[in-house]
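Q: Here's a chain of 309 amino acids. Please give me its 3D structure as tokens.
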Amino acid sequence: MNGRSQLTLRFGALWRNYLPDISLFLSTVIWGLSFIIMKVMLGSQISPYLFVFLRFAIATILLYPFCRKSLPGLSIGGFRAGAALGILIYAGFITQAVGITFTTASKSAFITGVSSIFVPVFLFLHRRRLPEAYVVVAILIAAAGMFLLTGPAGGGFNLGDFLTLICAVTFAAQIYTMGLATARYDTLALTMVEIVATAGISGMMLFFAPVYFIFSWWNVAVLLFITVFGTVLPLLAQTWAQKKTSSVRAGLIFSAEPVFAYIFASILLGESFNFIQKAGGAVIIMAVISSELIPLFMARSAQKWRKPT
């Protein structure tokens, strides 16, 4: 085998090894950009309730070809679990969509980013299993970061921040519930039911909420962009990639979402944090990363101590 063939094989192996991480990274970048899109569109171009409905209704149509073969094998229990997840997803997305109209895109992203830290809280509520000490510390660190981000130096904790915090807690409940459900049911089928349920609930809520859309081809294109690249493709990429990479690596990649949101908001919207807010954002990221890394280090230390000498 010549040197060129070896180089090609080596490059192909690297591509296969890192493609899952690259797909998750690109999804994270798009999610960061989606906060800017929502900030620009919601309230001025389209109502938050119609935005959530259209996003998930279109996602339902686009996801169906990928999930239709797995749906017949889903049990009644799987459909119930998917419906429950749909309720949580709707609650999270609508509080985020309404909340971002009252706060900045950057603050919305950082507050949403703490959702993973709250997951162990639902383990306690469900199983009465006390969270590890590091989880409590991570929650306290995140709370300190949110105080710096949204306290008096950051303009105060407003309605948008409060709604976004509810969004983060709801997403944590969805993450925990999804973890329980995917252990019993097919992931793609479950995701399809979840998306359909979210679209159905958001459709029913249109009868009780203000609905408007300022039509332009640009607005249509942006809506399709955030649906395809901010919902459908990331869901498929996440479902595929997280089977091929570790949950810790995925969690670390996802923790960069608010950072990208801040970068895009600074460039495109002119948003900026003062020094205290930047410190708060950094503290939140530190809390999220520590909640991902500490369990890994603890597990490795335990394995090392168990090894025979």
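Q: Can you summarize the key feature?
A: The chain has a mean pLDDT of 83.
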